[in-house]
Amino acid sequence: MLRIEGLHTYYGPGHILHGVDLHIPEAKIAAVLGRNGVGKTTTVRSIMGLAPPRAGHVWLANQDIAGWPPHLIARAGVAYVPEGRLIFPDLTVVENIRVAERTAARQWTLERLFQLFPALGERARNRGSELSGGEQQMLAVARALATDPKVMLLDEPSQGLAPLVVRELANVIGRLRDEGVTILLVEQNLKLAEAVADHVFVMVKGRTVYKAPLKTFQAEQNEVKARYLTL
Amino acid sequence: MNFAGFIVAQTLNAFSQAAILFFIACGLTLIFGIMRIINFAHGGLFMVGAYVGYSTVAYTGSFWLSLLIAPITVAAIGGIFEKVFLSKLYVRQDAGAYLMLTFGLAIILAQAVHLIWGPQPRSVAIPDLLRGVVVILNQPFPIYRLFLIAIGAAAAIALWQFLERTRAGLLIRAVSQNAEMVHALGTDVALVRTGIFMLGCAIAALGGVLSAPLVTAFLGMGSTVIIDAFVIVIIGGMGSFLGSIVGSLLVAFVQVFGAYYFQDMALAIIYLLMLLVLIVRPGGLLGKEQ
User: Fold this and answer.
1) C-alpha span between B147 and B213 (Å, rounded)
2) Which ipTM was obtained for this model?
3) What phi, psi does A2 have (nearest 5°)?
4) Per-residue model confidence as pLDDT tens digits over B144-188
5) B200-250: per-residue pLDDT in tens?
6) Could you give the CA distance from residue B246 to residue B239 in angstroms, rounded to a whole number?
């Protein structure tokens, strides 16, 4: 569903991505691991069009969306849950979701979103800034779902959340896959990644250096961790 | 002289003055909220609105038509300016560049008005329906000023409802909080920016048309009013719509009553008020603390 080939991205003169390759089959979850500063967030922002790649391809099904403006990438079916959640602080929960709803007939209606996240339904009229970190994360996911995505990009969703909330998040991510959403999960939290991922990719210095199904990764975990993940 | 009558008349005066100020300040603050641009040309657009209004009345004889034609014309000028010039600067995020460009537009507008309408002021007659005075507590009060109060209040309520209740209003509020996120959720933010710029221009032009019967359309009218509008936006809070209402009222009241009680200091008083607000609440009365 999502295939990334040879992605090169620059921030000004800085060459950040040096050829990222990722492949996620439909309705699967790929976790992207790596130390701080290896370009995980830039990869997500490049896919979303917020940091347009200078070279490479981003295949969404049969369309190369590399270089498209973000709003067209979103309409093509890519949803973005950014690092730090970036909820609209002065909008209510419902308004946050409405921003993402461009069309009326949709798969993820407000009722379905509130079924998936009952806590949000209870806080529908609260402002984004009044929510807890966990509620904000759920709202960021709900807001992304309101665009009716084929692919969802999740950047560090577990950041700053209590273990219990992370477990709830893992359940939600698993349910989204069961609903047919293809998911790219960037994570530092290895537990969450292992709990949900079908495939694991590891990045070092702007490149993907390792890819394997979860089972293989778990078998080789100690070696992979020592080579690529620990400081 | 009857004191209660005097107070009422001055209060109504202040409200009508606030209406004119609001028309220019609210566009300024909305544009700043969305685009982080201080639009120096806003006074010029207000002036062009007054002159286009004058010409509309001159050719068609209808003041009411000018309330439609002037905002549309000025919104078109603003829209073209935003699309062709201003939008080229967004990647740079440089407040100085915006200021230079919009200041340039202000100069071009002033020269264009000079070329088209000449240096002499153009007076616009008050429409028949709004001519004359009503007597309130033994004080005569111009009907046209009551009309200004009504249309100012109506515009403020309409805009507020537009921002709170419509999808376009929701997107405007969202963009002012995080434009990139709105873009990534599927909305073409460039359209929202152009739209808000045009809306701000249209409201300023409406203010220009409405003030022409009071002060005539003259070349310096933009620069007089833009300074007041900046003060209002700073007092109310940069980017705050409600702040622009509160700021317009405060400045108008201080101007009207200040001019009566402290004639020698009338000009200084609104700056003292601004200074006071900046000391107590640096972000403005309804603005966010930076």
Assistant:
1) 12
2) 0.93
3) -125, 120
4) 999 999 999 999 999 999 999 999 999 999 999 999 999 999 999
5) 999 999 999 999 999 999 998 998 899 999 999 999 999 899 999 999 999
6) 13
Instruction: Report chain A residues whose CB lies below 8 A from the CB of B187.
Output: 71, 99, 102
Which among A50, A65, A99 is the top mutation candidate for probing chain B, defined by the most B β-carbons within 10 Å of its own β-carbon?
Answer: A99
Tokens 């806590």 locate to A119
List of residues 6+ apart from B29 with CB closer than 8 A: B233, B236, B237, B238, B239, B240, B241, B243, B244
CA distance B173 to chain A (A): 8
Q: Are the C-beta atoms of B230 and B28 separated by less than 8 Å?
A: yes
Give the three-state DSSP class for B57.
Answer: helix
Task: Give the integer Cα–Cα distance in Å for A74 and A48.
Answer: 7
Which of A224, A178, A199 minimizes the C-alpha distance to A21? A199
Confidence band of B1 (pLDDT split at 50, 70, 90): low
Q: Are B86 and B29 in contact (CB under 8 A)?
A: no
A residues 166-225 near B, CB within 8 Å? none
**Cβ distance A76 to A68 under 8 Å?**
yes
- Which residue ranges form the domains of chain A, and what is each CATH number? 2-229 (3.40.50.300)
Residue-by-residue DSSP string for B211-267: HHHHH-B-TTHHHHHHHHHHHHHHHH-TT-HHHHHHHHHHHHHHHHHHHHH-GGGHH
Q: What backbone phi and psi angles, to 5 degrees, belong to A154? A: -115, 120
CA–CA distance from A94 to each of A87, B110, B238 (Å)? Answer: 12, 46, 26
Helical H segments across chain B, by residue range? 3-35, 42-60, 63-84, 95-117, 143-165, 167-177, 179-184, 189-215, 221-236, 241-261, 266-280
Q: Which two tokens stand for residue B245?
A: 């209402």
From chain B, the residues in CB contact with A147 under 8 A are 185-186
| Total residue length of chain B | 290
Cα separation values, B135 from A230, B68, B120, B132, B256, Å:
84, 31, 34, 10, 20
- Write down the pLDDT at residue B259: 85
* Average pLDDT rounded to a whole number, residues A198-209: 93
Q: How much of chain B, in percent, has pLDDT values that exceed 90? A: 79
CA angle A49, A144, A7 (to 5 degrees): 25
- Token pair for residue A49? 């069009």
Confidence of residue A223 (pLDDT cuts 50, 70, 90): confident
**Residue A231 confidence (pLDDT):** 66
Assign 3-class secondary structure to A51-85: CCCCEEEEEECCEECCCCCHHHHHHHCEEEECCCC
Which chain A residue has its CA at the smallest distance from B174's CA? A88
Any A CB within 8 A of B183 CB: yes
